[in-house]
Design goal:
- The chain has 180 residues and is an alpha+beta fold.
- The chain has a domain at 9-126: Gcn5-related N-acetyltransferase (GNAT) (Aminopeptidase, 3-Layer(aba) Sandwich).
- The chain is built from five helices and eight strands; from the N terminus they run E-E-H-H-H-E-E-E-H-E-H-E-E.
- The protein has helices spanning 24-32, 35-38, 49-65, 110-124, 140-148; strands at 9-10, 14-17, 68-75, 78-91, 94-101, 130-136, 152-162, 170-179.
- It has an eight-stranded mixed beta sheet with strand order 1-2-3-4-5-6-8-7, with helices on both faces.
- Helix 4 (110-124) links the parallel strand 5 (94-101) and strand 6 (130-136).
- It starts with 8 loop residues before the first strand and ends with a strand.
- This is GNAT family N-acetyltransferase.
- Its EC number is 2.3.-.-.
- InterPro entries: Acyl_CoA_acyltransferase, GNAT_dom, Ribosomal_N-acetyltransferase.
């Protein structure tokens, strides 16, 4: 039985919702151009709005196909202004997370809050027994977010991910998970 996550999730301060075509411009302006935001991610900073539009289109296709749930993060009081994204990629018995947050929101506990609420929802489903995420071994901020969200470091994956902003060779990652 496949995992089915809701289309809309709220936490104390955040809303997690489906992406809209209108999200491309504010996301481009907020963070897809920012090297510091993209530093440890699998994509390079976007050079044009059309790159972010293509990305949002692929996110919308992910929802339509049911293969993944890239949630747009907004503050609860205004769901028209994206501040980041949290993607759930479906595994046979769980989900794998990827996330990004605009720099002006760093340090406020918002990504931890988003990860906690999404993993709490996922782990209530009988078919989901694991929520996992990886981060580069040098990305201490991301590792700390996962730890604060209740994830346990399970190990180190050598030559795991190519991060184009840091080079062309695969880099090691830490594997984190919350399980039931």
């Amino acid at each position: 039985m496949p995992i089915v996550l809701p289309e809309f999730i709220q936490s104390q301060r955040l809303s997690l919702r489906k992406p809209r075509a209108s999200d491309a411009k504010p996301i481009f302006e907020a963070y897809t151009q920012d090297f510091d935001v993209a530093r440890y991610l699998v994509w390079r900073p976007h050079q044009s709005l059309s790159e972010t539009e293509a990305f949002i289109s692929s996110c919308m296709q992910g929802w339509a196909s049911g293969q993944r749930r890239p949630y747009v993060l907004t503050r609860r009081e205004d769901d028209s202004i994206p501040i980041g994204m949290l993607e759930a990629r479906f595994l046979p018995n769980g989900i794998d997370l990827g996330y990004v947050l605009q720099r002006s929101c760093w340090g406020a506990g918002l990504m931890k809050e988003a990860i906690v609420v999404l993993s709490d929802v996922a782990l209530t489903l009988p078919e989901c027994v694991r929520v996992q995420a990886t981060c580069d071994t040098e990305n201490l901020a991301s590792a700390r977010v996962l730890e604060k969200a209740g994830f346990v470091r399970e190990g180190r994956l050598e030559r795991h991910s190519v991060l184009p902003n840091l080079g062309s060779e695969p880099r090691p990652s830490f594997m984190y998970a919350r399980c039931k």
